[in-house]
């Protein structure tokens, strides 16, 4: 552990395009996670994907 504290590795700054790509990936992942965890109005049952339509 001390090795990493004593020898920090500098990260290169990301370009605007790289930041935007990373942000869109994170948004897509968050949306998928939220969709996976959606519950019915009762709060105890997950929503079936077939019931969304």
Number of helices: 2
N-to-C series of helices and strands: HH
The count of strands amounts to 0
Strand content: under 5%
Described by strand count, sense and barrel closure, the largest sheet is:
none
**Rg to the nearest angstrom?**
20 Å
Look at the structure and give the mean pLDDT.
81
- N/C terminus separation: 51 Å
Helix share of residues? 40-55%
Given the helix and strand composition, which structural class is it?
mainly alpha
Q: Segments where pLDDT lies below 50 for 5+ residues?
A: none
Tell the overall outline. elongated
Describe the overall structure.
- This protein has 53 residues and is mainly alpha-helical.
- Helices cover 49% and strands 0% of the residues.
- It starts with a helix and ends in a 17-residue tail after the last helix.
In brief:
With 53 residues, this protein is an all-alpha fold. 49% of the residues lie in helices and 0% in strands.
Provide the fold topology.
Elements lengths: L1 H5 L9 H21 L17
Task: Provide the descriptors you would attach to this structure in a database record.
mainly alpha, 53 residues
